[in-house]
Design a protein that fits this description.
By secondary structure, the chain is of the alpha/beta class. The protein contains 7 helices and 5 strands. It has a 5-stranded parallel beta sheet. Helix 1 packs across helix 7. The chain starts with 17 loop residues before the first strand and ends with a helix.
Length: about 180
């Protein structure tokens, strides 16, 4: 069977679109890996954090974890963006936490054309990265709540973050035959 992810083009041959979601807790490197992967593939990059309502950002800046009700408008907006990509035959890489299976189900309007890659790492690595961040609304004080919320998928690609970004991108591309 042909792989639907032919690299180097933003439009699949059948114009069906495709979205690859780089997921994981804050500090896992979703943005860095997502941008590097999108650049290498010549696909559109979408930053999931840009879809948070202002109230969510303010809550996280105060060190308060989001709950399912807080995430609802964010998930709805992301799903709409994903559907737009699929409907327009666009290929995109989306960086988004997607911590729970119920969230991933919402973000997967078409299981054949939306897939997830999870970035994982040790608490120490994640905490160190978050502590070194500047100008981001998500601080290290929310890491524990994110890890408690995290529901890793049974299947799918899970990549350890304790390696260079290029090695992570290479692993994703090799595993997905990109």
């Amino acid at each position: 069977m042909d792989n639907p992810l032919n690299a180097g083009t933003c439009r699949p041959a059948d114009a069906s679109g495709y979205v690859l979601i780089i997921a994981g807790v804050s500090g896992a490197g979703k943005t860095t890996v997502g941008k590097a992967l999108a650049e290498r593939l010549n696909w559109r990059y979408i930053e999931g954090d840009d879809f948070h309502p202002a109230a969510n950002v303010a809550k996280m800046q105060r060190g308060e974890p989001l709950n399912d009700a807080d995430r609802e408008p964010w998930l709805r907006r992301l799903r709409e963006e994903i559907k737009t990509c699929l409907d327009q035959g666009e290929r995109a890489v989306l960086a988004c936490s997607a911590l729970k299976e119920s969230y991933r189900a919402r973000l997967r309007p078409d299981p054949e054309r939306v897939h997830f890659v999870f970035l994982t790492g040790s608490y120490e690595t994640l905490h160190r990265r978050l502590a070194q961040r500047r100008d981001h609304f998500m601080g290290p004080d929310l890491l524990t709540s994110q890890l408690e919320t995290l529901d890793l998928p049974e299947g799918g690609l899970i990549v350890d973050i304790d390696q260079p970004v290029d090695a992570i991108v290479d692993a994703i591309m090799a595993d997905l035959s990109l």
